Amino acid sequence: MPLVSVVIPTYNRSAWVREAVASVLAQTYRDFELIVVDDGSTDDTREALRRFDSQIIPVFLPRSGVSAARNEGVRQSRGSLIAFLDSDDLWLPEKLEVQVAYMEAHSGIAVCQTDEMWIRNGRRVNPKKYHLKQGGDIFGISLERCMISPSAVMLRKTLFNAVGGFDPTMEACEDYDLWLRITCRLPVGLIPQALTVKRGGHADQLSRTVPTLDRYRILSIAKLLESAVLSDEQASLARRELARKARIYIEGCEKRGKKEEASTLASRLRGLLEGV
Q1: What is the number of other CB atoms lying within 10 angstroms of the CB of residue 15?
Q2: For the chain, does the N or the C end have fewer beta carbons within 10 angstroms?
Q3: pLDDT tens digit string along 157-205?
Q4: More confident site: 204 or 262
């Protein structure tokens, strides 16, 4: 059985997914299986994947969302280490080799990520300082913003299953939601090499197609507080960040005339924010 299972979810990105798959097949590390989950594509993705023949394990689902697609890929995986790659991103050839060596050298680490380079509309851009990758106990900073990229991460399958995988009810910010459930429990290893290429600027990115992303981050923090898995210190941090995000979001709803939405959210969070 392979040590690593690579999972690529894709939807209507036939040209992008060919490049993503090729970047995995070009890895210097070879003990992996590659599972590509087509989430109900209506373009020529099926034909694009057929050219890779037995080099990949194709999985075809009715349209279910990226969380369900990733979860299904993990369900069908055989490796003890899981690495995700979004279909619009790429890996440098040494990515798996370096990351597997790190995981083998740090048996106490259950999740790690590489650094990454950003390409936007075909040009390399530098991330802001607050986007720079961090390692160790990053729960506090992860409440503020998503500090782990799915395409840069490798984690033990046992950890993924223990925290419940991606939440398929989350229309967006499903990765933010998962990383909170992980970082509140464990430190994150960081490999300070840009071995992941994150490509952005295209029209079908979730950040462009789903409005008001902070609504989903608010719901993620609320779920986490309700789960009662946080220490007292972590719960205090979570409540403060929840209050900050909720205040901004509710004020925005009221300005846009969405008073019912603002009232519903305020009512939903009232018990969690008492005393903040």
Answers
A1: 12
A2: N
A3: 999 999 999 999 998 999 999 999 999 999 999 999 999 999 986 666 6
A4: 262
Q: What single letter denotes the amino acid at residue 255? A: K
Q: Which among 239, 75, 34 has a CA at the least distance from the CA of 168?
A: 75
Give the predicted TM-score (pTM) of the model: 0.93
Write down the pLDDT at residue 64: 95
Is the CB of residue 175 less than 8 Å from the CB of residue 150? yes
